[in-house]
């Protein structure tokens, strides 16, 4: 489903973010991309969703060759991917329902579909009782669950989680990780980028380790080994 083939990314002509990395993510897989800050995790995600283009190499997502997509192709392409960020990126003037519904509205989905899907995904993440709460009325864990609902509402094939627990306490961290595992069990491919050693070693999923832009380890049930 996802393929990076000899991908390198150099910023400003001399800052190497990724150097000749190659890996594949299979449909339905749960894979973790790990490494210290600056290892290249976020660059992998930016390249995969088309926010940046590689300096060299090819990136495939299903039928798409991502590195060749034009700007006008990206909105349709990104409907196949749900992205969750560390800082939630909720709209502060919209409640939970409106934050999730907005993702469908900008995609031009029919109002009946919006009214049907939005409550379903809020229920799936356990927030039916917070439907009309605004972000400032939610805990960090609840904000991230709204963000997950928003990412899931398009029923994407892949969920990309970029340090989704970075701003959360231990209780809410495991709440979010368990929710991602539940989504994976329903058939969605998960790509989790994190530098949290405890999470990686506990969930026993595939681990792709980056160090200074190089892929140095790829294990089916790996551990986070400090490099």
Write a brief structural summary.
This protein is of the alpha/beta class and 227 residues long. It has helices spanning 41-48, 74-78, 96-105, 111-124, 140-152, 170-185, 197-203; strands at 2-11, 15-25, 30-34, 56-61, 64-65, 81-85, 158-162, 189-194, 206-211, 214-219.
Low-confidence stretches: none
Strand order of the largest sheet: 6-7-8-3-9-10
Radius of gyration: 17 Å
Query: How widely separated are the two ends?
Result: 29 Å
Q: Number of helical runs?
A: 7
Structural class: alpha/beta
Q: What characteristic shape results from the CA principal axes?
A: globular
Give the DSSP E fraction (strand runs of 2 or more residues).
Answer: 25-35%
Describe the main β-sheet briefly: 6 strands, mixed
Give, in order, the helices and strands: EEEHEEHEHHHEHEHEE
Mean pLDDT across every amino acid position: 93
Helical content stands at 25-40%
Number of strands: 10
């Amino acid at each position: 489903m996802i393929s990076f083939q000899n991908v390198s990314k150099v910023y400003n002509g001399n800052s190497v973010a990724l150097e000749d990395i190659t890996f594949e993510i299979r449909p339905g897989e749960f894979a973790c991309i790990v490494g210290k800050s600056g290892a290249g995790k976020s660059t992998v995600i930016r390249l995969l969703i088309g926010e940046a283009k590689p300096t060299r190499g090819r990136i495939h997502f299903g039928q798409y060759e991502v590195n060749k997509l034009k700007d006008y192709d990206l909105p349709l392409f990104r409907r196949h991917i749900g992205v969750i960020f560390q800082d939630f990126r909720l709209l502060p003037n919209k409640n939970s329902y409106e934050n999730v519904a907005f993702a469908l509205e900008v995609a031009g989905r029919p109002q009946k579909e919006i009214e049907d899907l939005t409550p379903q995904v809020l229920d799936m993440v356990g927030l039916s009782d917070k439907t009309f709460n605004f972000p400032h009325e939610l805990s960090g864990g609840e904000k991230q669950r709204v963000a997950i609902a928003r990412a899931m509402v398009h029923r994407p094939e892949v969920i990309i989680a970029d340090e989704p627990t970075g701003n959360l306490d231990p209780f809410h961290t495991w709440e979010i990780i368990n929710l991602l595992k539940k989504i994976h069990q329903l058939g969605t491919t998960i790509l989790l980028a994190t530098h949290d050693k405890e999470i990686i070693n506990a969930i026993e999923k595939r681990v792709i380790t980056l160090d200074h832009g190089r892929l140095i380890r790829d294990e089916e049930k790996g551990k986070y080994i400090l490099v």
